[in-house]
TrEMBL record:
Superkingdom in the source lineage: Bacteria
Pfam hit, one: DUF4953
CDD domains given in the database record: ZnMc_MMP_like_2
Name assigned to this protein: Metallopeptidase
Segments forming domain DUF5118: 88-134
Amino acid sequence: MGVAGDPGPARQERRPMTHRDTIQLTAIAAAALLLTACATTGTSTPAAAPAAPAAAQAPAGAASGAPGSPGATSPMTAARPPADPTAPKPFAEVSRDTKRQDGLFPILRKDEKVWLEIPRAMLNKPFLFTINISSSIGERGFYASQMGPDVMAEWRRIGNNIQLVALNTKFRGEGGGKRAVEEAFSPSLLAAGPVASADHPERKSFLVDAGLLLSDIPGMSTRLEMAYRLPYNVDRGNSYFESTRADAQLSTLNAKMHYFTPRIPAPPLVAPPVPVPTPPQATPDPRSMFMGFVFNFRALPEQAMSTRRADGRLGHFTESFTDLSDDSKPNPRVHYVNRWRLEKKDPNAALSEPVQPIVYWMDKNIPPKYRASVEAGILEWNKAFEKIGFKDAVVAKQQPDDADWDNMDASHASIRWFVGSDVGFAIGPSHVDPRSGEIMDADIGMSDVFARGGRSFIVEDAPRGVSSLGEEAQALAALNQGWREGRNATYCTYAQDAAAEMDFALDILEARGDIAPDSPEADAFIQARIKDVIMHEVGHTLGLKHNFKASTTVTQAQLKDKAYTDANGLSGSVMDYNAYNIPLEGEAPTSYNNTTLGSYDYWAIEYAYKQIPQAQEAAELGRIAAQNRVPGHAYADDADAGGFGPIDGMDPMINRFDLGDDPLAYYKKRLKLTQELWARVQNRKPEAGDDPLRQRRQLASGFSQLTRASELVGKYVGGMYTHRDVPGASVPAMRPVDPAKQREALRFLATGLFSADSFRFKPEFLTSLTTDYVEFNRAGFVSIPTAVARVQLSAMDRLLQPQTAIRLMELPNYVSASERKSVISINEVYGTLQSSIWSELKTGAEIDPLRRNLQREYLRRLQANLTRGGAASGQFADAYAVLRLHAVQLQSDLRAAQGKGSVETRAHVAESLDMLSSVLKATMTRT
C-alpha cells in the first residue's frame, strides 16, 4: 500500500469501506472536533491558523480526502468544511477574458462589465476623488464641460463589502487630538458594494464591480428637482461606462447616467400663487435624459506641498478648516492658499523655468479662429510669474482634433468650449489637495455664446436673451462646484454679465456708425472680449478670487488717455467685473475693454507663488501683504460687494461693473449714454431685412444699464468706506461716506432716475416695436412703465431697507463731535426721498403716469414698513418712528392736493390718501 498522498500503483484496487471503518472515522472526526474546540477556547493550546485564501484552496474536482488521489490528506486530518457559497469567486475566474488597463487602480473590462482592482495596500489610504460633468441637457444650469465635486476619499473593506468613503476634512486635529476629532465628526459614505473576487495570489489585490459608481453620487436628482420640481431618479439598468483610462497616478471612468421620472404631472387647473417651472425643454422627451460623468481617482502626492497661510489684505481661494488640536487658540480656523506646486529648476537663478509648468489644454472644440485669443488670455499671466523669477510658468497646448482622451480627466487642466440653449457664462473652478491647498486640476468652461452671440449682436440676427442665466441656474451651477464649503465656492458670472455690457457697447458703437458687421473692428472687438474673459477665468484657476474694488484704482482722466489704457488696461485687476470704457458723444475713444493684467494681479501672484526659504517665509509674506496701501492694490471680494442674500454691501466703491475712481460719475455717464442710444434708435427708421427684435433689444439694453446703476447709486446713502488691513493699522477700517457725496447721490436719483423726463419715447417709435411672428412663443406687448419701475424700485428698495436705516442712525457714532453737524440723518434721507417722489403735491403740476406708478410703489413700501410686526421695536424702532412721521406729513399734503389736476391725477390723489390713511390707522402687533 502506498504512503498517504501517494497514488500508488495504477493497478491497485480500492476495497469497499466496511461498517468498522465507518465507526473508526466517526471517532477520529469527533476527536478532531474536540481538539478544535480546545484550540479556540483553551489558554495553553496554540491558536488555530487563519483559513487559507480562496485562491489557495484545492481546485474543483480534486478529492480532498480520498486516499490515493492527488492532494489526499491523512485519515488523522479533520474533514474540510463545505465551501462558503457567499465567498468571492477566485480572481482568475472573475478576470478571465478581460482587458486590463494598469494604473493607480487597474481597470478591467469585459463587454459591458467594468471592475476596479483594489490592492490591499491601498485600503484606508487617502486619494482625491472627483466628478466632472462631460455631457448634460443644455439648459437651466445643466451644461456640459463643468467641474463637479471633489473630496479626499479612501476605500474601506468591511468583511466582503467595499466602501468608498469621503473623509471629513472640515475639522482636524493637526497638532494632536486626531482621534478625538475623528470620533466627533463623521465621514460620509459615497458608494458601497460586495467584493467581486478573492485576492490575487501574488498582487494581494481584489476586484470591485465599478457599477457601484452608477448611482447618484453627484446628487444630480436633487438639483434636477430644484430646477424642474420633478422627482428624477437614476436608472441603473440603462446607465453604463463609455470609456476608461488609467495610469500610475490616475484611474478615470467615463459614465453615461440615465435619469428619468415616471410621468410628467398635468398642469394645475388654477394657476398656483408661485409659478411652477416647465419640464425640460431641451430634451426630446422630458421624462428621460442622459448625463455624462467623469469619475476620477487621483493619487495624492506622497509628500504634501508646503502650505501657505492666507492673508485677508488680498484675496485667494483657500482650503479652510477648523483645527481643534489646540484649545488655547481663540480662533481655530485655518486657511491655506490654493495654488499650484510651482518650483524653480534652478533655485539660485533670477529667472528659471519651473520643474513642472502649469499647463492648460485648449479643448479641440474651440473654433480655430478663436484659439489665438484663448491662448493669449492664458499666456498673459506669464507676465506676473516673470516678475517673481519664473520663465514660462504657464503653458498653453492645443488638444489635437483626433485626440482620443478626454481633458475632463483629473490630469489635464483645460479650457473647455461648450454650448447650451440658454447659456452665456464662463466658470473657472479647480480641485485641490485638502492637506495643503495644492491645485491638482482645473477645467475652465467657456460658452460659445461669447463669440457667436457677440458677433450676432452686431449683425442683429439673434435674440439677446440667449446670454441670460437665471438665478436658479446660477445656484445649480454653484452647487456643481463641490461638496466642501468655503473653497472656490463663488459662482462667477463675469462672462454672462460682460455679455450684457458688450451688448450695450455694441449698440452704442453701431448706432454711431463706429463699428460695422464683419469689419476688422468687429472682429477685434470679439477677440478682445474672449481674451478678457479667459484672463479672468484663468486667474480663478490660479487661485485668485474676485476683486471688486480694483476698477477704482484708475482715475477718470486715465480712462480717457489711450496711451495709459493701452499699456495698463482699464482696471487694477482682471479679477474685477470690468465695464466697457465707452466715451461720451464727441469724446475720443480709448481702450474699450481690459486687455492686460493690473497691478493687483502681479501682487496676488507674488504672495501665492514667490519662492521663499522656509525660515524667511513668515516675514517675507508679511512684507508682501503690507503693500496693500500701494496705489493699484485695493482689494474687496464678493461679500464686500454684496447683492445676495442678507449681504447688501455698504461700500459704494466696491461694485460689479463700474469704472474709475468715482463710481457715481460713472453712473451719471451711463445715463447719458443710455439716453443717447435711445435717441439714435428712435431716429433710425427700421429697414427691410432688419431683425424684428432689434429695437426691443436696444431698448432693453439701456434699461438693463440703468437698473444696475440705480441700486449702486443707493449704496452711497448710509454707506461706509472700508479698508482691509491688520489690527492697529493707521488707516481706519471703516468710515462714513462723505455727507456731500451722499447728498449728491440723492440728487441724482431725484433729478435723474426718478424723473419721468429720463424715459420719454416717441409714439412712432413705440408703435414700431414689433415681434418675431415666426416664433410661436414670441414676445408680447412692450410695457415702458414696467421697465421704468424696475429701474426706480432698485434704488427705492435700497433706501428704505432696514440695513440702510440702521447705518444711517449709527453714522454719528463714527465721526467726531465737530463733524456730527454735517452728517446726513435718516430724517433728511426719508424727507428728501418722499419730497422728490411727491414733488407735484407742492408745485400743483400734473402727475405723469410714470410718476403715479412710482408713487404707488412708494406707498406699498410704506405700508410694508409701518404694518410689519416687530418693525416698531429693536434697531429699526427710531427709523419706524421717523418714517411714520413723514407718512403723516404726506397724508396732510395729499389732503391739500385734493381736487386739483386732471381726472386721473385727482383719482390718484384720492386713492393714495385713502390707502395711506388706512395704513396709519391700522393696528400692528408689536413684539
